[in-house]
Design brief:
With about 200 residues, the protein is of the alpha/beta class. It has helices at about 5-10, 25-35, 50-55, 70-80, 95-100, 115-120, 135-145, 160-170, 190-200; strands at about 15, 40-45, 65, 85-90, 105-110, 125-130, 150-155, 175-180. It contains nine helices and eight strands. The strands form two sheets. It has a four-stranded parallel β-sheet. Strands 4-5-6-7 form a four-stranded parallel β-sheet.
C-alpha cells in the first residue's frame, strides 16, 4: 500500500475533479494521464461520483482517490468503488480512525495550528491546506509551517496554473490541488492533455 506521501509526490498537481457524467470519466482520466498527471481526486459532490471513481480506476497509470469525504460511510463507499486514497475538507477523529482501519492513505484538510496539532495527535503529518487562498494564502501557510517542521502540505482552493509555482516553491509543500485542469461540459481531450502537460511541468 502506498503512503500518502507517495501519492502526493507522484505529480506536482493533483486535479480536483467534479464529474457529473460517468461517460466522461475515462476520457478525462486518459487525457490527464497522457499529460503526465497520474494522481486524480474525484470529489463526492455529484450523484454519480462513485461510478466515476470506478470508471477512472480502470485507466492504466491512473491513481484515483476520492475527495470531499466527510465520514466513514463515504470512505467505505469510495474504497469499494476503487479509490486508492482519501481526501477530506477537514479532520475528524472518526474519519482518521476509519482510514487507519481500512489501511487507506488519508489527506485531511486543515486551516489552522489547532487542526495540525489534532492531526499530529492522530499520527498524521501530511495535510491538505484548505481553503488555501481564503485561509490566508501563501503568507498563512508559511507562518503555519514554521512551528511544524515535520509537516508537509497540499494546498487546495483558489490555486491556478499561474499561481501554482509560487505555492510549490515553499519547502513545506509537496504538491497542490487544482480544479482548472478540466473545464466543465463535455471533455475536450486535447485541451485537458495540454493543461495537464503545463501542470506536470511545474516543480515542487
Amino acid at each position: 500500500m502506498a503512503t500518502i506521501e507517495d501519492i502526493m509526490t507522484l505529480s506536482p498537481v493533483i486535479p480536483v475533479l467534479v464529474i457529473h457524467d460517468p461517460a466522461h470519466a475515462r476520457p478525462v482520466a486518459e487525457a490527464l494521464v497522457a499529460g503526465g498527471l497520474r494522481t486524480l481526486e474525484v470529489t463526492l459532490r455529484t450523484e454519480r461520483a462513485f461510478d466515476v471513481i470506478a470508471e477512472m480506476a480502470k485507466v492504466e497509470g491512473a491513481v484515483v482517490g476520492a475527495g470531499t469525504v466527510l465520514n466513514k460511510a463515504d470512505l467505505d463507499a469510495s474504497v469499494r468503488a476503487g479509490a486508492r486514497f482519501i481526501v477530506s475538507p477537514g479532520l475528524t477523529k472518526p474519519l482518521a480512525h476509519a482510514a487507519r482501519d481500512a489501511d487507506v492513505p488519508l489527506l485531511p484538510g486543515i486551516a489552522n495550528a489547532g487542526d495540525i496539532m489534532r492531526g499530529l495527535d492522530l499520527g498524521l503529518t501530511r495535510f491538505k491546506f484548505f481553503p488555501a487562498e481564503a485561509s490566508g494564502g501563501i503568507a498563512a501557510l508559511k507562518a503555519l509551517s514554521a512551528p511544524f517542521g515535520q509537516v508537509r502540505f497540499c494546498p487546495t482552493g483558489g490555486i491556478r496554473q499561474d499561481t501554482a509555482a509560487n505555492w510549490l516553491a515553499l519547502p513545506s509543500v509537496l504538491c497542490v490541488g487544482g480544479s482548472w485542469l478540466v473545464p466543465s461540459g463535455s471533455p475536450d481531450a486535447t485541451e485537458i492533455t495540454t493543461r495537464a502537460r503545463a501542470a506536470a511541468a511545474l516543480t515542487a
